[in-house]
Amino acid sequence: MFAALAVAAGMNAQTNTFDINTSKVGAPIPSTMYGIFFEDINYAADGGLYAELIKNRSFEFPNNYAGWIISGRVSLKDDGPFKKNPHYVRLAPSGHRDKHTMIENEGFFGIGVKANAEYRFSVWARVPDGGNAKIWIDLVENATMTDDQKIGNAGLDISGKEWKKYTVTLKAKKTLDKAHLRVWGDSKVTTDLEHVSLFPVDTYKGHENGMRKDLAESLEQLKPGVFRFPGGCIVEGTDLATRYQWKNSVGPVENRPLNENRWHYTFTHRYFPDYFQSYGLGFYEYFLLSEEIGAEPLPVLNVGMSCQFQNGIEHEDEVHVPLDQLQPYIDDCIDLIDFANGDPATNQWAKLRADMGHPEPFNLKYLGVGNEQWDYEGNPAFTKRLKIFVDAIRKVHPEIKLIGTTGPNSEGKEFDMLQPRMKEIGCDLYDEHFYRNEEWFLKSGNRYDNYDRSKKAPKVFAGEYACHGKGKKWNHFNAALMEAAFMTDLERNADIVEMATYAPLFAHVEGWQWRPDAIWYDNLRKFNSCSYYVQQLYSLNKGTNVLSLTMNGKPVAGNDGQNGLFASAVLDKNTNEVVIKVINTGDKLQPVTLNLRGMKKGTYSAQLISLHSDDLTAENTLDNPTKIVPQTSSLSVTAPAQEISVPARTFYIYRIKK
Questions:
Q1: Beta strands in 533-613 (DSSP E)
Q2: Is the pTM of this model over 0.90?
Q3: Where are the beta strands (DSSP E) in 302-385?
C-alpha cells in the first residue's frame, strides 16, 4: 500500500516542492554521527546487558545475604582471597541427617534459562580443614507441581585448603524465566564459597565474562558510530564516594568492588533498594564491546563534582572536590587514556589492558569530562574545574578530543551561560541534553542552522535526548516520529554536529525507573522500541555527505507553510545513492514533488523504507515485538521531478540509485 501511495500525488492538497541539489556535495557526515549511550539505569548492566545471572555473587551487598536464601549452618566470613571483596560463606554440615545446608539465589527478578541451553557455573572454593568435599548445584523451579524441582543439576568436587576456581556446566531441561540456583554443601565436610557465578555459555562473541547475546546483538544491529559509557548521572554519584570509578572496574573480575548505584533509591515511586554495580561490566568490557560493534569508544569521567541535582549549591563545599585537590581526578583521565592506548612495555595501565587480553590499543579518540554539570550565577563551579582538566590533559595527550557539557537543559540561563564557555575553555565538543515534549521537538527543527561555525567553535554532541510525550512519557510511535523529525536537523548540520546518542538505552520491564528507552527486555525476551528503529534507520542510511534540500529556499523543518513536513538529504558515495528522508508529522497526507537537480532525465531504481502506525500511542511489546517495524519496497523514480505522497504520521526514506 505504501509503495502505491508513494508514487500517487494527492488530489486535494497543494504540492510541497523539495529542491534537492544532487550534484553539489556538502559537508561530510561524521562516522560518529549516530551512536548509543549506555547508563546503568533500569537494570541495564547487572540484570541486563551483563550476562551474569547471580545477584550479589560475592556477598558484598550491605545486606550480605541480599538475593540469597540460606538454610542449615551457613555463616559469613570476611577474610577471603580477594582484598576488595573480602566476604564469603562457609557451608558446614548441619549435624543431622535430615537437615541440609544450602544457599539459594533468586537472580535478578528470577533467573532466565532456556531449554537445552548450557550455563557455566563457577565458584572460588576451598575445604578449610583440608581433604575433599562435594557440592551440588541445582537449577530449580520453585513453583511446580512436578515431583522434583530440579530443571538442571551438576556435582562439583572441591579439594584442599587453598582457594581455587572451579567450573561446571549445567544444561536446563526446560525454559523458565524465574528459576533459582541452589548450591548444597557437603553433608559431612565444611566448604567455603566465594564469587558464586552463573553465565550462559552462549554469550555475545562467546566471552566468559560476557554480554547477554540478544541485547548486544541489538546494539550491533544499530551500526552505531560512537558508544558513550558508563553514564550519565552514575559518573557523578549521589556523593563522590559512590561515583563510578573506572579503576575499580578493571582487573580480575573477582576483585572488583561493589559500588552503590546512584539510581537505587532515587525515586520513591519506583524504588529498588538492592540495585548495586558489581563492576563485572567494567571499562575493559566497554572498550571491547565498542570494538566488536564497530563504534568509537567515548568514556565519560568525573570532573570533581557529585550530582548537582541531588545536592545543590548550598552543599557545594561538602560535595565537590576543592580546586587544589583535583589531581587524582585528573590522573584518572590521563591513566584511562594510557589504559586504552598506551604501550604495555612502558605503561602500567596499558600492561593491565594487555594482561586482560588486549595487547593492541583500543584507539581511544574522545574523552568526556563531567556529565551534566552547570555553573551557578556568580559561581563557575563547573567550568573552573573543567578548565583545569582540559589544560592538564592537553599537555599530556593533545591528540584526544575533549568533551565538555552545557548542562541538563537545552536552553535557558545555564545553557546560555555554559555554551560560550566551552569555546573559551577550548573543548573540542560539548554535550547537549534534551528530554522534551512533542511541541519542543516540532519547534526545534532549525536548532543548529545558526550555530557558531567559526574555526575555534566546538562541535556539538547531542549526548542525551528523547521525546517525552506530554502526558505520555513512555515509548509510543508518535514520540519516535517526533525524534525522527528532529534528527533531520542533526543530519542537515553535520558540519557542526559530530555525534548524537538517544537515551536511555536499556530497561528491564520489572526494574525500570526511567522511560522511554530504546530496548526493553525481561529475563528471556526483548523488543526494540519504535525509537530504536528511528535511530537504526538514520544510522543505516546516514550516507557520506550532506545534500542541500530546501522548500522555497528554506530548510524543511516544520516551519510555517511547510505542512508539518521535515526532510533532509544525503549522498552515499559508497553505493552511489541519493538518500532522502521525509517525515510527515501532520494528520493529513502531503503530496511532495522531489526536484532532483543534477540528475539526468530518466528513470531510476529506488527503495522506499517506511515506518508508520495508524495508532499514535501504539508500541512494540514483549508479546508483539514486531508490531511497528520498518517496511521496505522497491519502486522507480523519475528525474528531474518525481511526484510522491507522504501519508500522515509517517517516516519515509528514499534510496535512489544514481
A1: 545-547, 549-551, 554-555, 565-572, 577-584, 590-597, 602-612
A2: yes
A3: 366-369
DSSP state of 128: T
- Three cell numbers written together for 238: 549521589
CA distance 637 to 654: 9
With a pLDDT cut of 90, the percent of the chain lying above it is 93
Nearest to 169 by CA among 206, 125, 202, 201: 201
Please tell me the distance from the alpha carbon of residue 267 to that of residue 321, in angstroms, as a whole number: 26
Q: Determine the pLDDT at residue 458.
A: 97
Burial of 118 from C-beta contacts in 10 A (0-12 / 13-18 / 19+): middle
Checking phi first, is residue 42 left (phi over 0); if not, alpha (psi -120 to 50) or beta?
A: left
Region label for 147, one of left (φ > 0), alpha (ψ between -120 and 50) or beta (otherwise): alpha
Report whether 382 contacts 416 (CB < 8 A). no
**Residue carrying the nine cell digits 514486531:** 626
* Residue 192 CA from chain centroid, whole number: 37
Q: Could you identify the residue written with the cell 575499580?
A: 248
Round to whole Å and give the CA distance between 501 and 504.
9
C-alpha cell at 190: 565444611
Number of H helices, E strands in the chain: 12, 35
Specify whether the CB–CB gap between 466 and 516 falls below 8 A.
yes
What does the pLDDT average to over 219-244?
A: 96
- Whole-number Å distance between alpha carbons of 258 and 66: 13
> How far is residue 463's CA from residue 573's CA, in Å, rounded to a whole number?
27
Q: Catalytic pick from 285, 372, 498, 577?
A: 372
* Spatial contact of 368 and 432, defined as CB atoms under 8 Å apart: no
Taking alpha carbons only, the member of 408, 400, 397, 401 closest to residue 431 is 408
Q: How far is 247 from 265, CA to CA, in rounded Å?
A: 24
Residues in contact with 3: Cβ distance below 8 Å, sequence separation at least 6, in sequence order = 608, 633, 634, 635
pLDDT value at 21 more than 50: yes
pLDDT at residue 492 is higher than 50: yes
Phi, psi at residue 388, to the nearest 5°?
-65, -45
pLDDT of the residue at 279: 98
Tell me the H-state helices in 211-280: 213-221
Question: Do residues 10 and 590 lie in contact, with contact meaning Cβ atoms separated by under 8 Å?
Answer: yes
**Position 62, amino acid:** P
CB-based contacts of 471, cutoff 8 Å, min separation 6? none
Angle between helices 283-293 and 327-341 (to 10 degrees): 40
Quote the strand ranges of 601-640, DSSP E.
Answer: 602-612, 631-639
Length of the chain in terms of residues written:
658
* CA distance linking residue 323 with residue 315, whole number of Å: 16
Whether residue 5 is predicted with pLDDT greater than 50 in this model: the reply is no
Q: Does the pLDDT of residue 8 top 50, yes or no? A: no
- Is the confidence at residue 126, as pLDDT, over 60? yes
Cell of 299: 568514556
* Per-residue pLDDT band at 10 (split at 50, 70, 90): very low
Hey, CA dihedral for 532, 537, 543, 549, is it positive or negative?
A: negative
In angstroms, the CA 75 to CA 64 distance is 11
Q: What angle do CA 225, 226, 231 make, to 5 degrees?
A: 155
Q: What is the spatial order of strands in the sheet that 88-92 belongs to?
A: 73-77, 88-92, 191-200, 118-126, 164-171
Mark whether 372 is an active-site residue.
yes
